[in-house]
Every structure is written in structure tokens, then in C-alpha cells.
Design brief:
Rossmann fold; 2 domains; 7-stranded parallel β-sheet; 9 helices; alpha/beta; 47% helix
């Protein structure tokens, strides 16, 4: 054996030893995931859950300040990154916060362009942005509110998927889209006509997208029951209106958080598991659908509702 061969053998052993000492790669390491609606609620919880598994997360929201706050929380946990000069993107570490109006295709395009400038690609898109307008005293909502409900809950999800698909096709790499719909999509009731109809449309949109984008892109949905904790859809006045509607006693002096907890407890009692549905529950389902654990699943809806009998068979 000559000296070079001896060196190569010895050096490789040292390399193998160093490799064995490295921490095991996390499940979503080197994956770039855009979470739209990451400023609060389910979107924020999903962003944190995906970052925990090693993903680089783009926190996007109509409220840019909230999106950046979510990103900063992730950075505080997982470390800083390096900025890209001239892009307006200040950090390319575990997360960045960007503005995104899902009713405006140009806004979506800008958000995705900034994502590519920051990270060089895109692997998954998670859509959690949504809106609910409670009916007024007449029991109805205005036409403009109906239009905006569908613009955000249905058309916005379509445009996001459509623009992301262009990137996925150019990359020619397996990708995933997860849309947050609702148990309300299959449970008919009074007081939320526009919201429920929009979520039913989102359910079928997901199925159509799964067919259109196969085999490269998997498209699935998560269907939560009512999530009160951390949701921007439950300001104080809506929590009070809901408690009144269901005959749940409360005191006007109670804090908004106390009112939300009472409402959440009421909703929990309507489920088979008697458990409150929280953003972290949806985040876990989103992680499963984004990961390779459910790599053979597309065109399906994963209910996370504590067990609602009226929603069975969806």
C-alpha cells in the first residue's frame, strides 16, 4: 500500500466519524414551505410546526406586521439567516415574513417571487387564510361581504395554487398544496350561509386541483371544526354573539379570552371526544400532509374536528 492510498483510507475514516457525529436530519430539512395566513391562528401554529421539523417557512399574511412577527418568533427559536441584497428580504434563515393579499394575483406573484429570491425554490404551499362575516340583525350579510367571502376562501386558494403550480412545473420536483377548509363545508346550519358555501366550494376545488396537478403535485385539505383560540375570526363581539345564540351564560365584565374559552368549551361538548379544537391540532395535520408520511395521499380531506357526527363520510 502506497502512502496516498493509506492517507485516503485514514482520511475517509475520519470523515465517516465526523458524519456519524452530525445530528440526524429533520424530516422537512431543506424544504421551503409558504404558509399563507401565518399571522395568527392555524397559520401561525402551522408555521411553527413546520419550522420545528426543519422547513424554511415563508410566513405570508395580509397583515404584513403579523407575518413578520411570526417569522421573528421562529427565528428566535431556530437562529438567524443571511439577507439577500436588493430583494427587500432581510433574512433567509428559518423564516421570513411577507405581505400577501390572496384576492390580488399580483400580490401573490410578488410574494412567490420574493420566496424564490430568498430560498431559491418552493416545495409546498399551505393556505390557511380565510374570512367569516357574521350576519347582521336581518340575519343576512351584504352582497359585498358574500363576494369577499368567496374571493378569499375560494378564489384566493385557487390563485395561490395556480401561481405555485407554475413554479412546481418549472422545478419538476414533487410538491404539495394543503388548503384549510372546514367541517362547515358538509354540516348545514343557519347563520353562516356564505362561509359554509365557500368552504364546500373549497373542498371541491381541492379535488379538482389534485386531478389537474397530478402526478407532480399532491393537493389535500384539512377540515377543522370551529377553532376559537388564536383566531382573528372571533373578536369579542362575535364571541358574545355566539354565546348568546347558543344560550351559554356569561358576564359582560369577563375578558375576551374568558369569553372565548367558554365558547370553545361549548363547542367541545358537541364533539365525540369532548375536546377543544386548537390551532396546534390543525398544524399537526398540515405537517402530516406536507411531509412524506402521507406521500401517497392526494385529493382528500383530513377532518380534525374532535368527532362531529354530522360531518361523517366527508
Amino acid at each position: 500500500m502506497d502512502r496516498k492510498e493509506a492517507f485516503d483510507i485514514g482520511y475517509w475514516s475520519l470523515e465517516e466519524a465526523k458524519l456519524r457525529r452530525l445530528p440526524q436530519e429533520r424530516e422537512l430539512e431543506r424544504q421551503i414551505v409558504a404558509v399563507i395566513g401565518a399571522g395568527a391562528g392555524i397559520g401561525k401554529a402551522a408555521a411553527h410546526r413546520l419550522a420545528k421539523e426543519g422547513a424554511h417557512v415563508v410566513c405570508a399574511d395580509l397583515d404584513e406586521a403579523a407575518a413578520k412577527q411570526s417569522a421573528q418568533e421562529i427565528i428566535a427559536k431556530h437562529g438567524e439567516g443571511i439577507g439577500v441584497a436588493g430583494t427587500g428580504v432581510s433574512n433567509c434563515g428559518p423564516a421570513i415574513g411577507l405581505s400577501c393579499d390572496v384576492t390580488d394575483r399580483s400580490s401573490i406573484v410578488r410574494m412567490l417571487e420574493d420566496t424564490l429570491l430568498a430560498y431559491g425554490g418552493l416545495d409546498s404551499v399551505v393556505v390557511t387564510a380565510g374570512v367569516f362575516f357574521p350576519p347582521g340583525e336581518s340575519g343576512r350579510i351584504e352582497d359585498r361581504q358574500w363576494d369577499r367571502t368567496f374571493a378569499i376562501n375560494v378564489t384566493g386558494a385557487y390563485i395561490l395554487a395556480d401561481e405555485a403550480h407554475k413554479i412546481f412545473s418549472q422545478q419538476n420536483l414533487a410538491a404539495s398544496i394543503v388548503i384549510t377548509t372546514s367541517a362547515n363545508a358538509v354540516v348545514a346550519k343557519k347563520g353562516s350561509l356564505a362561509y359554509d358555501a365557500s368552504k364546500a366550494a373549497a373542498n371541491h376545488l381541492m379535488r379538482e386541483l389534485a386531478v389537474e396537478m397530478a402526478p407532480l403535485v399532491r393537493v389535500n385539505a384539512v377540515a377543522p371544526a370551529t377553532v376559537v383560540k388564536g383566531s382573528t375570526m372571533f373578536p369579542r363581539h362575535r364571541a358574545i354573539a355566539s354565546l348568546t345564540k347558543y344560550g351559554v351564560s356569561f358576564d359582560e365584565k369577563e375578558s375576551t379570552e374568558e369569553l372565548r374559552e367558554k365558547l370553545s368549551a361549548f363547542y367541545a361538548q358537541r364533539s365525540l371526544t369532548r375536546s377543544s379544537i386548537e390551532p396546534e391540532d390543525q398544524a399537526e395535520a398540515i405537517f402530516l400532509l406536507v411531509s412524506n408520511r402521507l406521500s401517497k395521499t392526494t385529493g382528500h380531506i383530513l377532518p380534525v374536528d374532535g368527532g362531529l357526527q354530522d360531518g361523517f363520510l366527508r
